[in-house]
Design brief:
single chain; alpha/beta; Rossmann fold
C-alpha cells in the first residue's frame, strides 16, 4: 500500500491524543518536509474504538459508565473491540492507505493484547486470531508506545474529567496492562518506546526524530 500506518499505544492518559495532534501539525506545517511528504496525499487522524459511525456507537457502549445497567462480560468486551476494528480497517484505514495517506491511529491491535489479554487475562492466542480476523493481517508500519507510570497517566486522565468505564478498573488491572506493553515491546522491533513522563514538547521531539528517520527510509518504498 502507498500510505503509511502509524499507531500510538500506551496506558490511560499517556498523551497519545496530544502527541498525534502535535505530529499532524508538524508534518503539515514543516516546509523542509514538503518534498519528502509529496508522495502522500494527506494525514488522517483516527482512533479505536470510535473511528467509524459503527465504532462511535460501540465506543459509547464500551466506555460510558451509564449506558448499560448490566456489566459487560470480558469476552463480550473483546468481541466488541474486534467488531470496532473490523469496521475501522475495512471502511477507513485500508481505503486511506490505498489512496496514499499517512494514517495516525490512537490505539490498534496491541491495545487488545494489553487490556483484554494481560489486563483481563483472556487467552493471548485467541486474541491474536481475533486480531487477525478483524484486520485481515494489516499491521502498522510503526507503533509508538508512550511509556509512563500508570499512576501518572491515571492522574492526568482524572484531571481532564470523569473516569470512563475502562479507567475505573482497579490499579492492578492497569499495572497488568502496562506489563503487557512491556512484553509486546520486548518482542516486536516495530514498537518504539517513547519516554512519556517528560513534557509534551520533549515527548514530541522524540517522536519527530523517529519519524524523520522513517520518512527517509520509506522514501523509496
Ligand atoms: N481499549 C481500546 C481496550 O481495552 N481494548 C482495545 O482493543 C482498544 C482499542 C479507549 C479505552 O479503550 C480501551 C483502552 C482505553 O481504556 P480512550 O478515551 O480512547 O479510551 O482512552 P485513551 O486512549 O487512554 O485516551 P486518553 O484520552 O485517556 O489518553 P491519551 O490520549 O493517551 O492522553 P491525552 O493526550 O488525552 O492526555 C491526557 C491528559 O494529560 C495531559 C493532556 O493535556 C490531557 O489533559 N497531557 C500531559 N500532561 C503533562 N505532561 C504531558 N507530557 C502531557 N501529555 C498530555
Amino acid at each position: 500500500m502507498i500510505g503509511k500506518f502509524i499507531v500510538f499505544e500506551g496506558v490511560e492518559g499517556g498523551g497519545k491524543t496530544t502527541q498525534i495532534e502535535l505530529l499532524r501539525d508538524w508534518l503539515l506545517g514543516k516546509e523542509e518536509l514538503r518534498q519528502i511528504l509529496s508522495k502522500y496525499i494527506n494525514v488522517v487522524i483516527t482512533r479505536e474504538p470510535g473511528g467509524t459511525q459503527l465504532g462511535k456507537a460501540l465506543r459509547k457502549l464500551l466506555l460510558s459508565s451509564d449506558v448499560l445497567a448490566e456489566k459487560i462480560q470480558n469476552t463480550s468486551e473483546l468481541l466488541l473491540y474486534a467488531a470496532d476494528r473490523a469496521q475501522h480497517v475495512e471502511a477507513l484505514i485500508k481505503p486511506c492507505l490505498e489512496r496514499g495517506a499517512i494514517v495516525l491511529c490512537d490505539r490498534f491491535i496491541d491495545s487488545t493484547i494489553a487490556y483484554q489479554g494481560y489486563g483481563h487475562g483472556l487467552d493471548l492466542e485467541l486474541i491474536q486470531q481475533l486480531n487477525y480476523i478483524a484486520t485481515g493481517g494489516l499491521k502498522s508500519d510503526l507503533t509508538f508506545w508512550l511509556d509512563l507510570d500508570v499512576e501518572i497517566g491515571l492522574s492526568r486522565a482524572k484531571n481532564r474529567g470523569n473516569f470512563d468505564r475502562m479507567e475505573r478498573a482497579n490499579i492492578e488491572f492497569h499495572r497488568r496492562v502496562q506489563q503487557g506493553y512491556q512484553e509486546l515491546a520486548k518482542n516486536n522491533s516495530l514498537i518504539v518506546r517513547i519516554d512519556a513522563n517528560l513534557t509534551r514538547e520533549k515527548v514530541q521531539q522524540q517522536i519527530q526524530e523517529i519519524i524523520m528517520q522513517k520518512l527517509v527510509e520509506w522514501r523509496y518504498n
